[in-house]
Design brief:
Elements (H helix, E strand, L loop, with lengths): L9 H9 L9 E5 L1 H7 L1 H8 L2 H4 L20 E3 L5 E3 L8 E4 L32 H13 L5 E3 L6 H8 L1 H10 L2 H24 L3 E5 L12 H7 L1 H13 L3 E6 L4 H10 L3 E4 L1 H4 L1 H8 L4 E5 L5 H4 L2 H15 L6 E7 L5 H14 L8
């Protein structure tokens, strides 16, 4: 959102920040899970209304606090790839409980859902929005001078492999290296390239990708294996985006420092890593000055379990260690229902306090 009193447009500030050409403010985003809205309801709405520099022109009463979409406890949903999802907690992501390629024998007749791309970009548990509507939305944003964004679904590559195979089976595959593994990667890559090409034909400033690559302390596979099987796929996808003049935004949960350089080399221009799993100092060493960091503010410990003072200190440390006058830093916080309202308030205050930390320092 554009802070009160800012002179640049959101689009210009975003692009200057990503390209390290000196943005006016540090872009800050706070998102609430449906479960968080459900828990706090009007009390959370009051927090949002107090911080227009973070949330923009939010209007009271526009949020349905009980809207979970397909994500209701006990629900199941079979996605376009044939993976069956089960949801255990209202408003939170579920997990795949049936994997269509548990047996490699099924790969021979398996087909990626490329025909469904004609209907529009995939959306979890909802009808696809047709491409004509997407194009009109993007063109309207472009005409109004706003940032234009395309999306690949979360879990588009590495995670899609284990959605299809099952996590343990895929880990064994990376050790045994059966020929089917390469065919599976190519199948998923081909689908993603077709989706990316659709977005690039419309024309967007940035393509958003999300793929959780790490565990809490390390990659689940050897970095050498990652570079052999996954880096080339990411390079092909991200390279196409960069060749079209668009930026590549990659969200990835878990510890990923060992392959941060590979991801940057593959074409990532905005990396969204978790601060808790990677450490601010580790992120600084691997990323500062090489890629724009959209830091995932610590939602594992500091936000849900810390004090308001801890929250403010965490935001300040991130800004001082990862930012610069050139830009290269954004802050993103995803807030879940365990987070106290006082910490949400402290988070918003700290972000507002540091919006102009570099552009207006004496």
């Amino acid at each position: 959102m554009r802070p009160v009193g800012a002179s640049m447009s959101v689009r210009e500030n975003y692009l200057r920040t990503v390209e390290m050409r000196g943005g006016e403010w540090i872009p800050c985003t706070v998102g609430f899970s449906p479960a968080t809205w459900h828990r706090y309801r009007e009390r959370l709405e009051e927090v949002v209304l107090r911080h227009p520099s973070i949330f923009g022109g939010y209007q009271r009463g526009r949020r349905d606090f009980d809207a979970f979409g397909v994500r209701r406890a006990g629900n199941t949903y079979r996605d376009e790839w044939g993976c069956l999802w089960r949801y255990l907690i209202d408003g939170l992501q579920g997990q795949v409980v049936e994997h269509p390629l548990e047996d490699w024998a099924a790969l021979k007749s398996y087909r990626a859902p490329v025909d469904l791309l004609d209907k529009g970009p995939p959306r979890e548990g909802a009808p696809a929005q047709d491409w004509d509507a997407v194009r009109r939305r993007v063109e309207r944003a472009r005409g109004e001078g706003r940032l234009t964004v395309g999306h690949c679904p979360h879990g588009f590559m590495f995670q899609r492999l284990y959605y299809l195979r099952g996590f343990e089976r895929l880990m064994v595959d990376f050790v045994r290296e059966p020929p089917e593994l390469t065919r599976l990667i190519d199948l998923v890559l081909d689908y993603n390239m077709r989706l990316i090409e659709r977005w690039l034909k419309i024309g967007v400033d940035v393509m958003h990708f999300g793929d959780d690559l790490g565990t809490q302390t390390r990659l689940p596979i050897n970095p050498k294996v990652f570079r052999k099987y996954l880096t080339p796929a990411y390079a092909e996808m991200f390279g196409a985006v960069r060749a079209a003049g668009s930026h590549v935004y990659l969200h990835t949960d878990g510890h990923v420092l060992e392959v941060a350089g590979d991801l940057i080399g593959a074409g990532v221009t905005v990396l969204n890593p978790q601060s808790r799993a990677n450490g601010i100092d580790g992120i600084r060493e691997a990323c500062r000055g090489r890629v724009c960091v959209d830091l995932d503010v610590d939602r594992q410990v500091v936000l849900p379990l810390g004090s308001p003072r801890d929250v403010r200190s965490h935001v300040r440390e991130a800004v001082e260690k990862l930012g610069s006058r050139r830009g290269g830093l954004m802050l993103k916080a995803d807030v879940y229902p365990e987070t106290p309202l006082a910490n949400i308030e402290a988070l918003c205050q700290a972000m507002e306090e540091h919006l102009y930390h570099y552009s207006r320092r004496g």
